[in-house]
Amino acid sequence: MIELPPMTPPIKRSVTIDGHRTSVSLEDPFWKALAVEAAARGVTRAVLIGQIDHARPPEVGLATALRLFTVHGMQQRAATD
């Protein structure tokens, strides 16, 4: 049997990117991972989300880009440990 971590439904938060407000729905662990990554880079979570938004391909949704960014960061950290 597989053991699952605690699960929560996505949490919708509003962010401002280039003066435009938008809502993003992510599960709590992704919100927390983005906050950790933002702090490590010395920026706010909103600034980091804006940077990810600008870097993502247009065919990839913002929520998907944020999830993939956090997973990639965890994989990189795991590879260096």
Strand ordering within the main sheet: 1-2
Strand proportion, as a percent range, falls in 15-25%
Number of domains: 1
Order of helices and strands: EEHHH
Q: Mind telling me the C-alpha Rg? A: 13 Å
Count the beta strands. Answer: 2
The main sheet comes to:
2 strands, antiparallel
- Choose one word for the global shape: globular
* Class inferred from helices and paired strands: alpha+beta
| Portion in helices | 40-55%
* Straight-line N-to-C gap: 28 Å
**What is the residue-averaged pLDDT?**
94
Show unreliable segments.
none
Number of helices: 3
Keywords: DNA-binding
Pfam family, one: RHH_4
InterPro entries: RHH_dom (IPR027373), RHH_sf (IPR038268)
Domain Ribbon-helix-helix: 10-71
Which properties best describe this structure?
81 residues; two-stranded antiparallel sheet; 54% helix
Description:
The protein is an alpha+beta fold and 81 residues long. The chain has one domain (13-80). Helix content is 54%, strand content 17%. It contains three helices and two strands. The chain has a two-stranded antiparallel ribbon with strand order 1-2. A hairpin with a 2-residue loop joins strand 1 and strand 2 (20-26). It is globular, with a radius of gyration of 13 Å. 10% of the residues are buried.
Summarize the structure.
This protein is an alpha+beta fold and 81 residues long. Helices cover 54% and strands 17% of the residues.
